[in-house]
Every structure is written in C-alpha cells, then in structure tokens.
C-alpha cells in the first residue's frame, strides 16, 4: 500500500474580510401593510422592523453576491485569483442546478475555484464559515469565499400576514483564510427535523395558483411559517446553543465584545440576550430594524454594518448564532477582522 501525501493545511483559520450589498429600494412598513391588513405600529412592536430592502429586477442573486464579494476580497487584501473555493448559502437561487456559486466564481475572476451552494436557510452563513475553516485547516483550500445571499421576495407571498412583513433581500460575504492564531472557534451546529414543517415552501402550490404551472414557469412555491413555535424555539433553545459555542471557544461572557444573532426578529434578539445574560458591555447587532430578515445574508450584513459603524472593531471577539428552517442552527465565536 502506498503512503499518501499529507494534506498541507494551515494551523489556524480566520475571517480576513467582510463585505455587503444592500438593494437600492427601501420599503417602509407603510408599503406592506395594506395587503396584509396590518399597521406600522403592529409590525414594529412584534418584529422591530421599520423598513426592509427589496431587490429590483437587476439585483439578482448573482449580482448582489458578486458586489458583496468584491468588497470582502479587497478588504482581505487579496485578489480574486487567490480564492480557491466559493461557498454560497442561499434558499432563493431559484434553480437547483447548476449551483450559482460557479457563475459567481467565474464572474469574480477566480481561477476555476471549487464552487458549490449549500441549503441551510437562515443558518447557512454560519454553516459556510464552519466548513471554510475546516477546508483551510484541512488543506483543501487556502482562501474560501463564503457568501450568504437571498432574494426572498421571489418566494414571498405579499398577502401572507405571517411572512410578508418579515423577509427581505441582500447579500453578505466573508473571506476565510490561514492565520497565525485561531480566529474561528469550533462550530456548535445541529438540526431538529421533528420541526421540519415550521418554516417551509408550500407543497400545495398547485392548489394555490389553481393550475399546473411549475417552478420555472414563473410560479414558485412560496414561504410559509408557523410564527409562534418558531419564536419560542429561537428565543430559548438558541440561547443554550450560544452558551455552548462560547464554551467550545473557551470564552466567557465577560470576554465577549459583540453578539451577532441571525436577524430574525428584534424580540427574538432581545429574548436571546436576556436568556444568555449578556453583560451590558456586549454590543448587539440590530440590523433587522431597517434591513428586515434576509435569511442567509443577515449575519454578514449585520457584521458589516457593525464594522462600518465602529461597533465591532478589529480583534473583537464576536459570537454568531444562526437558526431557521429545517430547523437548522449553527453558532461559532470569531475574531473580527
Ligand atoms: C410572526 C409573528 C410576529 C406573529 O406574532 P404572533 O404574536 O405570534 O402572532 P399570532 O399569529 O399569534 O397572532 C396574534 C394576533 O395578531 C394578528 N396578526 C397576525 N399577523 C398579523 C399581521 N401581520 N398584522 C396585524 N395583525 C396580525 C392575529 O390575527 C392575532 O390576532 P387576534 O389576537 O385578534 O386573534 C411572531 O410569531 C414571530 O415573530 N415569530 C418568529 C418569526 C421569525 O422571526 N421567523 C424567522 C425565523 S428565521
């Protein structure tokens, strides 16, 4: 039996740069309320959302991803040709094949980087960061681009009271590469498939549209959600996952500088912070107020804003927690680049 060459992985991995793309069009609650018999006051009180951004026709999944990625690559001090793997977390690229990641890798000018999509809904970005860290340390890639991107308006029913005011569009990206010190702690992740039905695309779309139109002919099975059980699960179960991620990182609450939970709902963010007993000094991402819930894009978008506004500084210790349909979740501690 021949001995195989060992994998030349890096000792440590870190996030080296983050970038974001927010669609041009800002949509206030007043534009959403009539179709769902709601009010600005109700939406703000129940979700904390004042406005959201919805993509225009030119702002495709690919276009938004490329824009966010170019910024992340530049901030990492790299050239696109150095990226050797592209992971795209999304549930709203409307074609199962080919992966949008290959087109993004090509448009960015990578040299035929490995490229694939992952489907873990709102938890997708943190899944991607965990995989990227392992790929870099395992020697399968040197610089991995992780993109969280959604155009959820393509699968949103604007007359559905449970979802129309929550979901939105956008893209965020991060470059993961080798580092002298650990910059991405081990992930705590998992799934609760018993609650598979709580957030999903409708299976009965034929009944809804009253015809045999299929995805691809312009009719997509839209998102539905049982808001109440999702709210309870996220508020309490995810606080425990956050604590486990801190434990795995060897970090105490006092060491933590920044908390970036998935931007699902402001009340969930507040409930998690209370359950985890976050100290006063920890700065909490609240991007949802004017960005809405952008699923896989929400964590990199929120991170990008905190960095831009000086709320997260280079070297800070940040806890990321992502959760959503599946139900799938992933949390890890990272060092802000
Ligand atoms: C969606 C959510 C805001 C709904 O709030 P809720 O308190 O659970 O709402 P309920 O469905 O129990 O309905 C409560 C009342 O509000 C009304 N209501 C529901 N949707 C409404 C809307 N969009 N506008 C106005 N009223 C609405 C209901 O009719 C009901 O009225 P009633 O008390 O007179 O019967 C809440 O469940 C939630 O935030 N869930 C988590 C969702 C989330 O973050 N998902 C993302 C995970 S990735």
From TrEMBL:
Keyword Nucleotide-binding attached: no
Name of encoding gene: fabH
Active-site residues (renumbered): 122, 262, 293
Organism listed in the record: Nocardioides currus
Entry keywords, A to Z: Acyltransferase, Cytoplasm, Fatty acid biosynthesis, Fatty acid metabolism, Lipid biosynthesis, Lipid metabolism, Multifunctional enzyme, Transferase
GO MF assignments: 3-oxoacyl-[acyl-carrier-protein] synthase activity; beta-ketoacyl-acyl-carrier-protein synthase III activity
Subunit text: Homodimer.
Function, as annotated: Catalyzes the condensation reaction of fatty acid synthesis by the addition to an acyl acceptor of two carbons from malonyl-ACP. Catalyzes the first condensation reaction which initiates fatty acid synthesis and may therefore play a role in governing the total rate of fatty acid production. Possesses both acetoacetyl-ACP synthase and acetyl transacylase activities. Its substrate specificity determines the biosynthesis of branched-chain and/or straight-chain of fatty acids.
Database matches in Pfam families: ACP_syn_III, ACP_syn_III_C
Protein name: Beta-ketoacyl-[acyl-carrier-protein] synthase III
Family to which the UniProt record says this protein belongs: Belongs to the thiolase-like superfamily. FabH family.
Start and end residues of each Beta-ketoacyl-[acyl-carrier-protein] synthase III N-terminal domain: 116-193
Region (ACP-binding): 263-267
Keyword Lipid metabolism: yes
């Amino acid at each position: 039996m021949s001995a195989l060459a060992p994998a030349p992985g890096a000792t440590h991995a870190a996030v080296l740069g983050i970038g974001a793309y927010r669609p041009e069009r800002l949509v206030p609650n007043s534009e959403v309320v009539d179709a769902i018999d709601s009010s600005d006051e109700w939406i703000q009180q129940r979700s904390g959302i004042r406005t959201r951004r919805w993509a225009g026709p030119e702002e495709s999944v690919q276009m938004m991803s490329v824009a966010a990625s170019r910024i992340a690559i530049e901030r990492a001090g790299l050239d696109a040709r150095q990226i050797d793997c592209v992971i795209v977390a999304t549930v709203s690229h409307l074609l199962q094949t080919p992966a949008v990641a290959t087109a993004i890798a090509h448009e960015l000018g990578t040299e035929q980087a490995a490229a694939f999509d992952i489907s873990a809904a709102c938890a997708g970005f943190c899944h991607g960061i965990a995989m990227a860290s392992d790929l870099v340390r395992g020697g399968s890639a040197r610089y991995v681009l992780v993109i969280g991107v959604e155009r959820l308006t393509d699968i949103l029913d604007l007359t559905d009271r449970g979802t129309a005011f929550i979901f939105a569009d956008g893209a965020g990206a991060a470059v993961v590469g080798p580092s002298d010190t650990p910059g991405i702690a081990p992930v705590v992740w998992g799934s609760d498939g018993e609650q598979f039905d709580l957030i999903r695309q409708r299976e009965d779309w034929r009944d809804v549209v009253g015809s045999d139109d299929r995805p691809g002919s312009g009719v997509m099975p839209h998102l539905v959600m049982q808001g109440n059980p999702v709210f309870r699960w996220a508020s309490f179960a995810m606080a425990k996952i956050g604590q486990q991620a801190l434990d795995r990182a060897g970090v105490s609450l006092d060491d933590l500088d920044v908390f970036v939970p998935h931007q699902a709902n402001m009340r969930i963010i507040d409930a998690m912070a209370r359950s985890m007993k976050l100290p006063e000094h920890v700065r909490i991402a609240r991007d949802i107020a004017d960005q809405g819930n952008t699923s896989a894009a929400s964590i990199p978008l929120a991170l990008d804003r905190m960095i831009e506004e000086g709320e997260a500084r280079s070297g800070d210790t940040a806890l990321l927690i992502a959760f959503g349909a599946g139900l799938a979740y992933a949390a890890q501690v990272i060092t802000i680049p």
